[in-house]
Design goal:
Length: 409
């Protein structure tokens, strides 16, 4: 008997009609027999098409036994692989998505039963699960929140296709409308100087200045060390590089893993030289107070004791940073209906450079973005001098007085 051949027979079972495609699976030593499988079809043509496809797969050495993984098994396989390369902050998204998938479908659901309709129902039925959002009074998931779940589900089931557990990804073709985004607040030079004036702590003044003057992320700034490398006074540069954790220092990881070196303006260098002269020798961090440094040491020791060092995130360095920043902005008299966080200092750095004709490719590298599209989409809001120059060209071609005079009534 040919154990590798797919055959077609008429369905002679009671109260049944149509055709069956039959084939043998792998040998089962426990039963001393080959597994047997069949699929039923209404017409012979449908059965023949399936048989031809299945026969081709068998001839190419693909598994003869159908793979029927559960949702739990798929998530475990994906997360086990992702954890090797992804940062803790990224993995948090996969853990949240996994838990939501289990709650909606059940962990023992066969993944082949999750089609596009069910996948869509899952996405549109998501609710807020972030405790910080709930505390802030939000009750509905934002458009970006739906995108968050769609992105992670598509990645999980995409790996299922890659592993040949699935033929297609049920989340890959779900279309969501582009969510409306709120404009962020651009801090001009006068506003920034006013913020510094109303910030009594010189260490925080320097923190704000580093973000405004070099475009660092808050986690990047708070992880800077007085080691002669992170801040290079000889060459007036700040150097960012991934750092492994030690027995005393927590690790530091750059978003997108892109090491970079950023030049400092002279006024910022002068501020940091003054701050270094004020630093205490027992505190290696540039912007952590002594009390905050002790708290970080305690937290890092706990992570090490619990063998959970992989869960450390850059945000673990922070404490009340946003609250303090908003307080200083209120004292500076800054009022706005636009999105308003400390991250706007970094965005304002990008906008200042764009407004002064710095090429977008250079700006991308200074910001540490993975693509120019990210720089254009999320960081640049005002027209640049290049755009205004284009308008000026048209103004010189057609004088206002002439076009007004010749315009039809």
């Amino acid at each position: 008997m040919n154990w590798n051949k797919v055959t077609i027979t008429k369905d002679t079972r009671k109260n049944r009609s149509g055709y069956l495609a039959r084939w043998y699976g792998d040998y089962d030593p426990k039963k001393d027999a080959y597994k047997r499988y069949c699929r039923s079809f209404k017409t012979r043509k449908e059965a023949e098409l399936f048989a031809a496809s299945k026969q081709s797969q068998i001839n190419e050495g693909e598994p003869k036994d159908p793979v029927t993984l559960t949702l739990k098994q798929l998530c475990e396989d994906v997360i086990r692989i992702k954890e090797k390369d992804m940062k803790a902050a990224t993995m948090t998204g996969y853990y949240q998505t996994r838990d939501q998938l289990f709650a909606f479908f059940g962990p023992n659901t066969k993944i082949i039963t999750i089609n596009k309709q069910k996948a869509t129902e899952f996405i549109v039925s998501r609710k807020l699960i972030s405790e910080s959002h709930l505390k802030s009074g939000k009750t509905d998931l934002s458009g970006w929140g739906y995108k968050f779940y769609l992105k992670h589900c598509s990645a999980i089931f995409g790996m299922g296709v890659e592993f040949e557990y699935l033929k297609r990804n049920p989340f890959s073709r779900i279309k969501l409308s582009t969510p409306a985004s709120q404009d962020w607040h651009f801090f001009n030079k006068d506003e920034f100087e006013s913020i510094l004036k109303h910030t009594p702590d010189f260490r925080l003044q320097c923190l704000y200045a580093v973000m405004y003057g070099t475009g660092l992320r808050i986690g990047e700034a708070l992880s800077l060390l007085w080691n002669g490398k992170d801040i290079d006074f000889e060459h007036n540069r700040i150097n960012l590089k991934n750092r492994a954790g030690t027995t005393t220092l927590p690790p530091f990881s750059i978003k997108d893993h892109q090491n970079r070196s950023i030049p400092m303006p002279d006024w910022l260098t002068a501020m940091l030289v003054k701050l270094q002269n004020m630093a205490t020798p027992q505190n290696p961090f540039v912007f952590l107070s002594d009390s905050r440094w002790r708290a970080v040491q305690k937290k890092w020791a706990h992570y090490r004791a619990e063998k959970k060092t992989y869960q450390w995130q850059n945000k673990d360095m922070c404490n009340n940073i946003l609250r303090n920043f908003k307080g200083h902005c209120r004292k500076a008299g800054i009022k706005t209906d636009e999105k308003f966080t400390i991250h706007c200092l970094r965005k304002s750095y990008a906008q200042n450079l764009a407004n002064n004709n710095i090429p977008i490719a250079t700006l991308k590298n200074l910001m540490g973005h993975s693509s120019i599209r990210c720089t254009e989409t999320y960081y640049l809001k005002a027209s640049t001098p290049n755009e205004q120059a284009a308008v000026n060209v048209l103004n010189t071609l057609f004088s206002i007085s002439k076009t007004t005079q010749d315009a039809p009534e």
